[in-house]
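Milestone M4 deliverable, item 7.
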Amino acid sequence: MLAICEISPRADDTQVMNLTLREKRVLLTEDKDFGRLVFAHGEQCYGVILLRFRASARKRVTEDLVRLVESEGRRLKGCFCVVEPGRVRRTRW
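Output delivered:
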């Protein structure tokens, strides 16, 4: 795991997505802008996991995220996943 704010605190979203490609990493985020960049602007990214958890459901984040990574693993490449409490939506681009 790599925290962008620690290695490149001023990186914009496109730079973050380029980093995922170079380092073959899936982006874990709560920022919906990455969906716009991928689907509306055609930006390239290795893979994205968008977390959508209300404050009252935060205790489930780790459990749901671990389940996704264990079940999908390498198939997360080229995939945009929206993870909500007890639910995952996947889209390939």
